[in-house]
## 1
Amino acid sequence: MLDDFMIRATLAGVGVAFAAAPLGCFVVWRRMAYFGDATAHAAILGVALSLAFQMSVFTGALVVALLMALTVTMLSRRGYAMDTLLGVMAHSALAFGLVAVSFLSGVRIDLMAYLFGDILAVSRADLAVIWGGAALVVALIGWRWSRLLTATLNEDLAYASGFDPRKEQLFLTVALAVTVAVAIKVVGVLLIAAMLIVPAAAARNLARSPETMALTAAVIGGASAVAGLRAAYVADTPAGPTIVCMASLVFACLSFFPSRAQGRR
């Protein structure tokens, strides 16, 4: 069954959607959209380093994305304005990554595939990495769910409950790095943030609870992946961007409905 490239692509898209959905909810709640963007942009530097040192792309992207997220977290605690810091780190990481790629001699690299994804070229090994990473992210978020919600709601409440919210931020950072690493093959570094934010933002208008929002975001993300792949096949358009377009259309349609959470905000 997995010999069909469309089936592999569909499974890869759904896997990334399941990983991005619960994490994307926290990105929306915490207003960390640019934080996810900065981490994703750093992944292109990880791709260059992994090719230079003959490592797996997943390993390189994961390590660099994790280092970027940790660096931003530490610097933000030293008084730097978060929006300025993320702007500097995001664009610097992308620029250094593109320059590093240009120094790779004797290595053929399809840069567009890493920037915008190449989901149709997903292999069985890629599927194992994507679903393994998705399972890790879901397990990590599920394990820390109540504490993450408390820390997101109010840091003082987290301290009063007996735990450090900065530790929960670290768990989110690790989950974000893993999601970026597994999604790079599907939608590329420039569109990973969209898969984190758009399904979660769309699900917000339908959700009655945080748990419902996470599940709804997973359904929207998975449906967008399936519909986007079908549309890309029929219209002969790039698969990764088409998936994001489908998620954006869902968000646009749901934006006309009054939010069920509106009365609580």
## 2
Amino acid sequence: MRVVIAEDAVLLREGLVGLLERFGHTVAASVGDAVSLVAAVEEHRPDIVVVDVRMPPGFTDEGLRAALVLRTAHPELAVLVLSQYVEQTYAAELLGSGRGTGVGYLLKERIGDVGEFVDALVRVAEGGTVIDPEVVRQLLSGRRDPLRRLTPRELEVLALIAEGRANASIARALFVTDAAVAKHIASIFAKLDLPPAADGHRRVLAVLAYLQAEPR
């Protein structure tokens, strides 16, 4: 894959470059601010960008806002956001962009598990959705409809779907059969009133409904 990295911390940026190249990916550019990120994407047209939330000059949410700009201009561009915290203001908007495909939001501590991080990167580049469990927890804090229609077990299944897990992985995590997971997912789709569609698209719609429920 062709990757553009945007991270203001030089050591982490160079570490990501080395890591991705070691796994056979091409880092087309590595930059330290949001303006340079937008320029690099326009120049190199990568398959995916890896972007930090906090970047110069304000070190607030410049990277996340740049990611939204890029997703608007290039809906097919995959985006994996890395952060030390959950920026709730724009996170749900980013996760809903591009119909919720090819997007991920991970906390930086996940980079420590190299295999898991690279796997997440590939899944996002291939059109998947990967959301850190802590991001899910914070975005769902204090939320209700349509979630109140789901059982506790269905909420567990939906949280794991939001992490980008396939049915077999969900079954292993919950110590149930694949058939039980499929039954829970079918019930979730029905309770969230999701229209008939390819299961992959309905999974994305379910996650978005989960993240965008009205606060109490």
